[in-house]
Amino acid sequence: MSESYQVEIRPECLRAADEWERPRGSEIQEVVRRTGLPGRGVARVLGLSDNGGRQVRRWISEDAAIPYSAWAILCDLVGYERIWLNRSPGKTPFEPDDDAD
Q: In terms of domain of life, where is this protein from (predicted)?
């Protein structure tokens, strides 16, 4: 009989980009595992190149930093919906600049 082992994802990794702390390799591996997809499948979902599975492995081994956008998409896939809107208590949501055209 096999036991299911899950790595807890730290709350600071599930924040909006300006408050985000980069996940550890074990956290990336856990989120990838929860997708149920192989590395190549994850790469395809993220729009990476044909060698994207290698990039996913580099994120897990911490040989390369995972971009926030890739992490946010993976988190959304596994049920941590829209982490880009997850602000600390007391912080206001992002608002467009008045100067923006």
A: Bacteria
CB-CB contact of 13 with 65 (8 Å): no
Residue 94 included in any domain: no
**Which whole-number Å values give the CA distances from 19 to 39, 43, 68, in the listed order?**
27, 25, 11
Any idea what DSSP says for residue 83?
Answer: G
List pLDDT tens digits, range 69-91.
Answer: 999 999 999 998 789 987 766 66
**Contact criterion met (CB below 8 Å) for 5 and 14:** no
| d(C-alpha 95, C-alpha 101), whole Å | 14
Q: What is the reported pTM? A: 0.81
Domain carrying residue 67? 11-83
Tokens 């591996």 locate to: 29
